[in-house]
Write a structure and sequence with these properties.
CATH superfamily: P-loop containing nucleotide triphosphate hydrolases
Strand content: 15-25%
Shape: globular
CATH topology: Rossmann fold
Radius of gyration: 16 Å
Distance between the termini: 14 Å
Helix content: 40-55%
Structural class: alpha/beta
Number of domains: 1
Largest sheet: 5 strands, parallel
Length: about 190
């Protein structure tokens, strides 16, 4: 039976970097590409980073029950996981890695129960998170403030996840993550 690993974290915590290392280390996993209604950022590719859907198409798929989970993360910006994406990966006999906001992550954990491991990646501090978001160079003052406010809210959910890993040093966080996943797969 395939298993799922759910990653959640505030934006800028290093979650994507950790997921990339996990996928390089374990070829039995495939990344579940989420759908979203926001525009592409520079360097993003449709179907690889996200399934970029116009907002009306996204809402239509909600009405047709095509998502296992979805959330309006920011006003007018929807994110979700298409059921067809999970089916595609399970049909390949692979385990699934999810990169989701906290509410989506908890929904997936609830849906898959013992078949899922939920991991929350913690920034060392809100100040470090602020610095990381600034270094991206993709945020306006307004979007930066929205992300920091959301991060404060998301940190309140950390203890609802199976494990919390502080990403102060990437190599150490990756090692801890791989250890947690290995324990989960072999228990």
């Amino acid at each position: 039976m395939s298993k799922v690993i759910v990653f959640s974290a505030p934006s800028g915590s290093g979650k994507s970097s950790i997921i990339k290392k996990v996928l390089e280390h374990n070829h039995d996993f495939m990344f579940a590409v989420s759908a979203c209604s926001r525009g592409k950022r520079p360097g993003e590719t449709d179907g690889l980073d996200y399934h970029f859907l116009p907002i009306e198409e996204f809402k239509s798929k909600i009405r047709q029950d095509e998502f296992v989970e979805w959330e309006e993360v920011y006003a007018g910006q929807f994110y979700g996981t298409l059921k067809s994406e999970i089916t595609r990966i399970f049909n390949l006999k692979k385990n699934v890695i999810f990169d989701l906001d906290v509410k989506g992550g908890l929904k997936i954990k609830s849906y898959f129960k013992e078949q899922a491991l939920s991991i929350f990646i913690m920034p060392p501090s809100i100040e470090t998170l602020h610095e990381r978001l600034l270094l991206r160079g993709t945020e306006t003052d307004e979007t930066l403030q929205k992300r920091l406010a959301r991060a404060s809210m998301e940190l309140n959910f950390a203890k609802q996840f199976d494990c919390q890993i502080i990403n102060d040093k990437l190599d150490k966080a990756v090692e801890e993550t791989l250890g947690a996943i290995d324990n989960f797969l072999h228990c």
